[in-house]
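Hey, can you fold this one?
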Amino acid sequence: MNELSPAFSAIVERFIQYVELELGRSANTAKAYRKDLQGLAQFVTERGCASPADVGIVELRAWLAAGRNAELSSATLARRATSIRLFFEWAFNNDFIEADPASALVIPKVSKRLPHVLRQDQATTVMDRMAVIADDDDAVHIRDRAIVELLYATGIRVGELVGLDVHDVDQSRRTLRVLGKGGKERVVPYGALAQQALVKYLSGGRPVLANETSGAAIFLGARGKRIDQRVVRTMLQTVFAGLADMPELSPHGLRHSAATHLLEGGADIRTVQELLGHASLSTTQLYTHVSMERLRAVYEQAHPRA
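Sure. Predicted structure:
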C-alpha cells in the first residue's frame, strides 16, 4: 500500500497520537485506524480530493460501498465507518476542516456469529496433549504447555498473555495482573493445573530460553526475546491440527471456551465480564447464547419428544 498523500499525512499522524495518548486505545487499534485512513486517502485522491477538507459524504459512502462490493466482512465495514467518523469528528473539532462530512454516516450493523468453542472434554484432551508434549523437558514445549494452560484457565487475550512480566504473577494467590484494552488493569485468578505448568516453565523452561535481551518478560521466544503473538497462534494451530475431532481455534478460541465453560459451570455473568475485561456486559452475554445453543443441541438429541 502506498504512503498517505502529503495533505493527509500530517493530520492523520496527529490523529493517531490523539487515539493513542488521549483516548488510550491500543497499538493494534491505532494501526487499524491508520490503515483505514490510508485506504480512504488513496480512494478520495483518485477522485480529486487533495485534502480532508475536500472530502464529502458522497466520497465516504462511495468508499464504504467499494468495500461492500469487494465483499469485505460486516465487521471490517463497521470498523472503517467508525474510523472515519472518529477522524472527521476530531478534525472538525480541531479546526482542520470546516464541516464534518462523516456525521451523517450510519455505522453498518455487525452480525454477531456465535464463536467456535471447545467442549469441556475436548479442552481436557488438549491439556492432556500439552502435558505429553512437555514430558520431554524441552524448554519450548514446557513453555507451550504453560501458555495453553494459562489461556484456557484465565480467558485472557493472547496480547495480554505475551505482555505479562514476571512480577505480574502472584503464585501464592494464583493470580495474574493483566494490562487489558485501553490500559485498564485487572487481576485474574488461575487454577492449580495452570499453576503446575507455569511453575515448571518458570523453573525449568524460562531459564533455558532467557538471555540478556529477555528483560522481565515471562514468555520468551527461541531467541530469548518476548514471544510474539504470531508464534503463539502458529503453535496452537499445530496442536489442534494434530488432534482428531477438533475445531480450528485461535488463541481467542480458548478465551471463548473459557468463558463458555465458566458460565456452564454456574459462574455469574458479571463475574465473567470482570474476568475477561469486557467493557460492556452485552459482549459477555454472547457466551450465554453459546451455552443455550449447546444446551438446545443436547436436548434435541436426548429428549424423546424434542
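The longest strand covers residues 175-179. Let me know if you want another pass with a different chain boundary.
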